[in-house]
Amino acid sequence: MPRPRKHDQDKILDAVERVVARDGVLTIHAVAKEAGVSKATVLYDHSSKRELVEALVARTIKADNAFNDACAAPFGGGLDAPLRGRIEAARQSPPVPGGNPAVLSLVAALMQDAGLRERFRRNQNTLGQQLIAAASHPRAARLAWLALEGLKLQQHLELHDWSDADRQEILDDIEALAVQGIDSVGDTND
């Protein structure tokens, strides 16, 4: 009986990211060349480009959730810990100058594929339920989460270029909203 092949899936998925960022399109040939493996090796675990993108989406969701969970750990699992962890994660992950072309290409792929969007939708629905269930002010937490996700989306898509000071002020306001409630956000006369 032949020995099962073992491939470094992270190496292949890293190659997918680099190819998409560099070329704007995904081909099996380009991924294989970038990863330094044969096309057969790429296709061994992923029979199509869609499966490669699906694996990349799954890895991205898993990594993002793990990073946010690690950022929430210092808050000790108390009220508002999950949302405060996500805010802390945003503080630790400032936008990359010049953006991330792989993120833009992934967003484009999601817009074209209902199955891929569904994976993100399920993750976001679960996350939203967890954040609100752990919130001291559920309605304020919902608004804070939406504000945080809106800020991150604008950054990822390079729709607005916030200064570091403005970005930190926005994150502080989002955290105040989450923890102190709707009436806590800055004075409108500032």
What is the strand and helix layout of this fold?
Elements: H1 9-23, H2 28-35, H3 39-45, H4 49-72, H5 81-92, H6 101-112, H7 114-133, H8 138-156, H9 164-180
Helix pairs in contact: 1-2, 1-6, 2-3, 4-5, 4-7, 5-8, 5-9, 6-7, 7-8, 8-9
Approximately what portion of the residues adopt beta-strand conformation? under 5%
Distance between the termini: 74 Å
Shape: elongated
Task: Report the order of strands and helices.
Answer: HHHHHHHHH
Q: Which assembly state applies to the chains in this document? A: single chain
How many distinct helices?
A: 9
Uncertain runs: none
Helix content: over 70%
Largest sheet: none
Q: What average pLDDT do the residues reach?
A: 85
Radius of gyration: 19 Å
Structural class: mainly alpha
Number of strands: 0
